[in-house]
Amino acid sequence: MLGCSPVLLFALCWVLFTYWTSVKAEECAELCDLYHGHCDQDGVCRCDPGWDGPYCEDCVRMPGCIHGVCHQPWQCMCQSGWAGNFCDKGEWNILSRDMKFPCLNGGTCHDENGFADALTCRCLAGYVGRLCETDVDDCLMRPCANGATCIDGVNRFSCECPYGFQGRFCTVNIDDCVGQPCHNGGRCFDRVGDYECYCAEGFTGKSCEVPIPKSTWEYQVGTSAREPTTQTQPTRTVGTSRWNPVSVDKAGHFKISVKEVVTQREPGLSQLQLIIVIVFGVITGLVVLLTVALVLWYRRRGCGQPGWCSSSEDTKTRYEQCHGTVPENRKTTEL
């Protein structure tokens, strides 16, 4: 019985050690941040580089970081009131005596040497000055066109456009013909803040809404003799025309004159055409007479006396060409 005591003691210790190891391994697996570490065979939580703590839940700050924290390894994020790469420079000395922030309009205060006298303010866009106290006039360059009013803002401006224009800079002319204000077939032409209508025949008014009475229309356009000043017949010469604009008489009637162009063609040939025909006829006659004279002259010259070197055969042939017959040889008789 006594000889088995060491063996039993060793077995008991082994069982207790195994139990303690299993319990510790379960505890490590439950508490250790396995994203930043792992459990070894002894149940100890071993952290990855950049992480620390019993269960690897704390990140390691950048070496030298004093008044800062981290959310990821090797960071140094300064706490309130501290600045610098290692969060070792206090910012409280840039406050004025009454504990008010010196930079205005959202500017950021920077103390380069740690003394209040050397502070500088980094201003937001739209402000200038030592303490960011001056608002920049964004209307200084007059960005609004066509007589628009510029309204300055913080790092921005807006344009109050006059009637007839729109857009950020009031450069877009509003099309006043979009609503088709011209009636009765009139054509609309856009203007600056206005429109103009070109009315069809028989209508007038700003929007061609007023019809011209038919009797007045016929009275002015027809051939009635009641208005001889507007119905005078045009002079019928070549290329002449007459045009009188629209007018209104004292009775309120519209006087409309019709443009009439009359071209009358003269009978016969013009003077230039007659001269050309005469010259051409004279030249043709002279050419014909000259040709006939040359032909007669050459024929007469060819039918003259035979030359000294002409043979009897040549003389006979030439005689035939000139007279058409050959003379019979005269027979001589010897007595």
Automatic annotation (TrEMBL):
UniProt xrefs under InterPro entries: EGF (IPR000742), EGF-like_Ca-bd_dom (IPR001881), EGF-like_CS (IPR013032), EGF-type_Asp/Asn_hydroxyl_site (IPR000152), EGF_Ca-bd_CS (IPR018097)
**In what residue span(s) does the EGF-like domain sit?**
24-57, 93-133, 135-171, 173-209
Q: Which Pfam families match?
A: EGF, EGF_DL_JAG, hEGF
Could you name the Gene Ontology cellular component terms for this entry? membrane
Q: Does the keyword Chaperone apply?
A: no
| Signal peptide interval | 1-25
Q: Name one GO biological process term.
A: negative regulation of Notch signaling pathway
Q: Which PROSITE patterns match?
A: ASX_HYDROXYL, EGF_1, EGF_2, EGF_3, EGF_CA
Compositional bias (Low complexity): 226-237
Q: List the disulfide bonds.
A: 47-56, 123-132, 161-170, 199-208
Please state the protein's primary subcellular location.
membrane
GO molecular function per UniProt: calcium ion binding
Q: What is the purpose of this protein?
A: Regulates adipogenesis.
Write down what this protein is called. Answer: Protein delta homolog 2
